[in-house]
User: Fold this.
Amino acid sequence: MMTQLPALQVVIPLLASLFCAFMKRGTVAWALSLVASWAVLVVSILILQQVLESGPISYAMGGWEPPFGIEYYVDKLNAFVLLLVSGVGAIIMPFAKRSVGTEIHSTRQPYFYTMYLLCLCGLLGIAITGDAFNIFVFLEVSSLATYAMVAMGKDKRALLAAFQYLIIGTIGATFYVIGTGLLYTVTGSLNLVDIAGQLDSVNNTRALVTSLAFLTVGISLKLALFPLHVWLPNAYAYAPSFATVFLAATATKVAIYLLIRFFFSVFGAGLVFQSLPVSEILLILSVVAMFGASIVAIFQEDIKRMLAYSSVAQIGYITLGIALANSNGLSGGIVHIFNHAIMKAAFFLALGAVFYRIGSVHIDHLAGIGRRMPITMMGFVIAGMSIVGVPGTVGFISKWYLAAGAFENGQWWLVFAIMISSLLAVIYVGRVVEVAWFRDPSGATLEARDPPPAMLLPILIFCAASIYFGIDTTLTAGIASQAAELLLGGLR
Assistant:
C-alpha cells in the first residue's frame, strides 16, 4: 500500500466524486467528502514523511517507465504543497455541512460536493504529476469544477463571475497548451525531468523563450498575478462561502507552485533570471500588486471583495520572493504560500460564519457583531494580525525572509516597500475591526451569536496555526528553505 500512495492521492477524491454524483441527500455526500478529504490528508502526511526520510519519490503510472509513461514525481516542494491542499480540505469540511446546507438548495448539494472533490483531485494532481500534459488535464479538471462551484452562489452575479472566470481560465489554459507544445517540439518529451535534462543541448532558443513566455502568461492568469487578476474579486465575492474558503487557500497556491516548478526545475534559474529580464518584470508587477491591490481593498464595502483584493496583494509578496531568486527570498515566497493559505482560510471561515448568522458580509451590516460573535471575530482579528505581519504570527515570518532576500540582493528599498504595504493592510483590516467591535449592535447583529462548534473549530485551528507556525517554523520555513536550496542548486 505504501508504494501506491502517489496514485491514491488522486484516485481517492476522484472515486469519491463519482459516488457523490449519485447521492440524493446532501448529508450523505458531505459525509463521503469528509472521509475522502481526511483520507488524502493522511496520504499527504505519509508521502511527506517518505520524502523527508528517503528523498524524492518517482511513481510510474501503469508500469510505463518515464519519460515514455506518465510519472508522478514528489520532492520536498510539492510534498509541501500536497500537505497544504489536503490539510485545508480536511480541516474545513466540518464547516461545510451547515454552511453549504444554508447557501445551496438541498437538491444541488450532492453536485456541489462532487465539484469540490473534483477540484481537490485536480489540484492534488497538478502538484504531484511530473508530466506537462497531465498537468493540463488536472488543470482543466480543477478549473471546470471551480467554475461550477462559483456558479452555485446564491447571488445571481455568481453566474456572471463564473462565466468571467471561465473565459479567462480558458485563455490561460490555451496559453499553457501552446507553451507545452513548443516545449515538446524542441525536446520531444512531456516529462518535466526529461525536458529539464535536454534543455542544455537545445539550440532553438527562440522556441524556448516563446514557450517560457506562453507558459508564464498562462499560469499567471491562473494564479491571479497583477494585472491578470480581474476574475478573482468577483469569483471570491459571489461564490458560496465554503467554495471561497477552499479556493482562496489552495487554488492560486497550486498555480504559484506550478510557476516555481517551471522557472526553477524545468527551464532553470540561469535562463529565466540571468539571461532574460523575468526577474525585473516580475518584481515590478509584484510591487504594484502589493500596493495597488491593497489600496483598492481599503475602499471595498463588501468584505469578501476586500479580502479578494488582499489576496492579489499577498500573491504579490509570493511572486516578489520568486523574483528575488535567492535563498532567503525564494524561501519567503514558498513559506508564504503556506502562511497565506492559513490566514485566508481563517478570514473567509470567519466571514462564512457571519454570513451564516446574518446573511450578509457588507461592512455596514456588521456594526457591533464582535460583541455578539466574539470567538468568530477574534479569529478575524488574529488573521488580520497575521496578514499585517505582527511578530509572533506567520505573516511576520514570510516578510522577514522576503526582507532578508531583498538585503541579500542589495535592494534595501524593497524592505521599506514591504513595510509600507503591510501598513495598508492595517487600514482595511482596521475598518472591519472598528465597525465590528467599537459600534453598537443594530439590525440583524442584535440576534447574532457564534456559530455551532463544528463551524467554530476550523476557525480556531487556523488561528492557532497562524500563531504556532509564527513561533515554531521548523516545519514551514524549514521545508521551504530546503526546497529553495534545492531549486537554486539547479542554476545553469
User: Anything to note?
Assistant: Residues 277-492 form one domain. The chain has a mean pLDDT of 88.
